[in-house]
Amino acid sequence: MNSRLSSKKPLRTLLTLAILSMISYFFIDRLSKSWTSVNETIDLRISLFSFLAILLILLAVIMSGVLWSLILEMLDKKSKRIASPEYVRVHLGAWLLKYVPGQVGAFIYKISWGSKRGLKKTDVTLSFIYEYLFMTIASTLPTSIILLLFGDLSPFVNWILLFILLDSTLLLASRPVMEIFISIISKKMKFETINKSLIRASGVIKFSAIYCIPRLFNGLGFVAIAASITSIEANSIAPLAASYVLAGIIGVYAILVPSGLGVREAMIVLFSAGVIGTEEAIILAIVARFYATAADGLIGLIYSLMTVRNRREKT
For residue 67, which of 180, 184, 213 has the smallest C-alpha distance? Predict the structure, then answer.
């Protein structure tokens, strides 16, 4: 038995190195391209708003890891024996896998971790699906309302927002629509059978509301980025934050694109142009990509330190 385990260690090490190398390649390539785009567009100066933006983006990811732990604890009581920092560490690792096209890598990473911890594959899968469900509702319902009221957008874009608002409302209030959503996400992850009753409507509302917190951090981070390169009026804060959050979730569902590259930027321009103008929106979208990538570098560092500490504690 021990010989069998020892023979698997080199394979696991090679697989880990391959994944880290792939993530590093995509990350360095993204950071380089983002920096080049920023330099060609604007003379970027680091300020307190710059540090605030990166901090808020980082807090949003950490908070999402804590919320994921609450979902898994709701599904599997065994998971309560796992400390919150470990959930955050795993979530940070899964987050970094967005640099590999698609969300499958993040899903497999969490499933693999769960199996080592003795958690059921069904429960970890459902936690991943619910995470996307709550994140989708929190990222579309309040943001579409804010942009419809204060975005000052064209009638065509407002019709798009009305469609998003209708879909997110149905996703929140209609159980059949929620079942369709879960079924689609399950098939995307090649996990077609889930023999478990769905969460109650009250639970969906509660978690969706809580998931607005990391979305708020993300939105305010974007406002801080905007404030680092131009003056922002108070009445522009809400629609700017909403445009970034809504653009972000649309980028997430561009599953074939690493980290939603290009898709999120296009949506940022589309939804924020009414507030700051098209030219300013284009510049802001490019600068935001650079800051988001820089924040991911910090996330990678924190994940590495937490993983090293985790392994030391096990030995």
Answer: 213
